[in-house]
Amino acid sequence: MEFSNWSIPEGISFDIVIAKLPLKRKFRTSFGEAYGTRVFLLSRADECIGIGEAPVDPYPLYSGEFVESVVEFAKKVLPEVKAQDTVSGMYNVLRKYRGNNFAKAMIEYSILTLVSCLTNTSLVKAVGGRPFALPVQESIGIVDSVDELLKWAEEAISWGARRLKVKIEPGWDVEPVKALSREFPGVPILADANGSFSPLKDSHWEILSEVAQYVNSIEQPFPPGDLVNSAKLSYEEAIEVTLDESVTSPNNVVELATLNEEMGSFLSFNLKPPRMGGLMESLKSVELAQQYDIPLFIGGSLETAVGRSLNMVVASTVSKNLEPSDFSPDQYFYERSLAKDPFDIECGFVRLRDGIGVMFDIDIDYLMSRAIEKISM
C-alpha cells in the first residue's frame, strides 16, 4: 500500500478525547441501549489535524473493548507511535499487541489523516479506490411495538432505504420480520440477531427457521466465533447468513470461503473497519472477499462523520458483491453532526467522498464542547 511508506513527522501532539454526543432516538440491540459515548484521537503537526474514532461504549458488551480500555491502550502505545519515522513503523508497533482493534483503528486513522493532510494526498487515491454511489440500508433497533417498528421502517423507505436491517433477539424475532415483510413487500430485509441465539437450544433453531421465511438474510445468529453453525443454518434454510462479530481479521474471510465451499453454505460478512483493526486490515479483507467471491457490506457502529470517513475509504475499494451498507448520516441518529459539511442520502444512495485528510470539515469546537475528558500527550 502506498501510504505505508509515508513519513511521520516529528513533534506530533495528541489529544485523547472522550465525548458524550446526544442521540436523537433510542437505539437498542440485544446488547442493550446505545450510549452515544465515543473516544477520539486528535493528532496535530504544523497546521494539520488528524482524527480517529473508536465507536465503543462504556461497557464491554458488543466487543471486549470499552471506553477505558481504548484510552489506556492509547496512553501506553502512543509514545511508541510518536517515535516512529514512517507509517510502516507505526504498523509494526500496533501489530505486536494482541486485540484492541477499535483502539488500533482510532490510532491508525488519526495518523493517516494527519499525514494525508501534511502531504496533500488523498487516502482514497492512495488505496486505489474511487468515489461512487453506494446503496444504503437502514438499521432499525429493537423497539417496544410493531407499530413503532413499522413507523421507523416507513421513514426509511421514504428516504429510499435499499434494505431494511432489523435487530432481533429471542422474544422479538418472528413477529417483527413478518410484519415488515407484509407491509413492505419487495423490500429486502436483513434480520440482525447480534449473536443472541444459542445453537444449543432446539427452540432457537426453530425460531430462526421461521425467521428465514420472511427475510433475505440473517446476520450473526449465533455468538461470535461460531462459524460452523452459521454455515449449517445457511445450508439448511437455503438462506444467506451474514457474519458480523465473528469476522475480526482477514483470516476469518478465508474461513468463510472454506465453509462455503465445503458445506454448500452462503456466508457473507459485515465489514466494520474499527472491528477489523483499521484501514490496512480492512483492505486485506476486501481483497480476499473479491478473490473468493464473497458478498459483503460496510457496517456501522453509530460512528460520527469521523468514522464514516474511514468507512468511505474502505468502501471505495470494493468493486463487486457490495450489498447495501450502513451509511446513514450521523445527523440521522445524533442531535447534531460532527461535520460542518455533512453528507445526505439521495434516492437511497450515498456518494462516497474523496479528499485530503478526514473527508469532512469536522467541528472541533463542538466536539470539545461535548468532551467529558481530554488527555493531552
UniProtKB/TrEMBL annotation:
Transmembrane segments: none annotated. Keywords: Metal-binding. Coiled coil: none annotated. It holds the Pfam family MR_MLE_C. One of its GO terms (molecular function) is metal ion binding. Residues 146-242 form the Mandelate racemase/muconate lactonizing enzyme C-terminal domain. SUPFAM superfamilies: Enolase C-terminal domain-like, Enolase N-terminal domain-like. PANTHER family: O-SUCCINYLBENZOATE SYNTHASE-RELATED. This is Mandelate racemase/muconate lactonizing enzyme C-terminal domain-containing protein. It comes from Ignicoccus islandicus DSM 13165.
